[in-house]
Amino acid sequence: MFRRIFCAVAAAVIALSLAACSSDESAPEGPAFGKVAVEDAFDNWQRVAGKQYKHLKMPEVIVPQQITKAYKIDFNLLAPQVDREKLRKVFKDFLGDSFSDKPQDIGDGGVVYPPIEGKRPAGSGTYQRDGFFTMSFEFEPSEYTDPNSPENKNYTVSAQGDTVIEFAGKTTTVAQKAEMIGNKINEALGNIFGPYSYAIHQLTVTPKEITANGGLVLEGIPFQYIGSKYSKNLDDKFATETDYACNVFSYIGEKDDIVWIGASGIPTFMGKTELDSIIPIERAAELADRGVGDESFEIADVKLMYCALIEYPKRAADGTFPPEYDTRGEIRTLEPTWCFILEKEHYSDLDEFVKVNALTGEVKILIGSDDSGQEIAAK
């Protein structure tokens, strides 16, 4: 494995832009910085789609996101404090007759509603101390098949939404199926975890089930929903630096019904600050191309997402966070970021990125991992 991260503000490029667009070269905002109103951020997407820059080859298909507002979002890594009665209702509504109203406390606000013994299908709901959430029915698992197997098809909703698929004897499109699943998740979860909605961004279709992966959305802009291959162990801080990601997932069974909904990494929402303008897609593509130096990459997809490179505290051997290293309560900030997702040869649940901060123009190349580090002894 390897690790690499380059940070470049592209100061010379920005300075030229300032000189060309404004007599006030110190102005950090607005047209002088190449920014536009938030709702205009995708206006020139057609100038980017399919373009061969000096170092980056853009995808032929870019789906413009319909956005009208963008924010800086404050959050922390502690599990959201969920109203227990609302959580009970979520489980009961989803599980129906399979719901057992006998909660088991698992500490730190965690709770399990266990399956009903002897009942089929048996259903359960879990909300753990680290915010991991599931509600599911027991079902017969299919035999494991390689995600790269020809019979299993992986789709990115934004790029392949019009692709026709067949499942459970029905024909639909990738976008229609993703919208259906997203609507059911929104209906099931509501605002129990915060002021979010939910959307599906990826589908894996197999002969017996569909795996749907997505994440949080705040007024049209998704939170980063897929983890990054980039990671760096910070031994002196007992932390790992990597991309923040919040994943919401679902399984659809052979009867075309949702049998599992889960989520990990949901943040505790601390507030938001509305932004008047951001860097548009064509400007971000230019900054990304200049920021990669002599590297060359093929880009598979382009998304505007809420992102942050953060330090995750390491766990002790018993799974807890030693108090002296536990930074989960610190306030962090997510900012709208242009994510140029690198093409990959094989299916993976992690991505690699060239990112451009939509506020500052900072370019980051997030590739690979650093596996060095040390184990934290249990306290």
Can you offer a commentary on this structure?
The strands form six sheets. Strands 5, 6, 7, 8, 9, 12, 13, 14, 18 and 19 form a ten-stranded antiparallel beta sheet that branches. The protein has five helices and 27 strands. The chain is mainly beta. It has helices spanning 11-21, 84-95, 157-160, 174-189, 281-291; strands spanning 3-8, 36-37, 56-57, 71-76, 104-107, 110-113, 123-127, 133-137, 153-156, 164-167, 170-173, 197-205, 210-218, 221-222, 227-228, 231-234, 239-243, 247-252, 258-264, 268-274, 277-278, 297-307, 309-313, 332-342, 350-351, 353-357, 363-368.
Give a short overview.
With 379 residues, the protein is mainly β. The chain has helices at residues 11-21, 84-95, 157-160, 174-189, 281-291; strands at residues 3-8, 36-37, 56-57, 71-76, 104-107, 110-113, 123-127, 133-137, 153-156, 164-167, 170-173, 197-205, 210-218, 221-222, 227-228, 231-234, 239-243, 247-252, 258-264, 268-274, 277-278, 297-307, 309-313, 332-342, 350-351, 353-357, 363-368.
- The strand count comes to 27
Radius of gyration: 22 Å
> Strand content of the residues, in percent?
35-45%
Q: Which structural category do the helix and sheet elements fall into?
A: mainly beta
**Low-confidence parts:** 1-32, 372-379
Separation of the first and last Cα atoms = 30 Å
The main pleated sheet reads as:
10 strands, antiparallel
Number of helices: 5
Q: State the helicity in percent bands.
A: 10-25%
Task: Give keywords.
379 residues; 27 strands; 5 helices
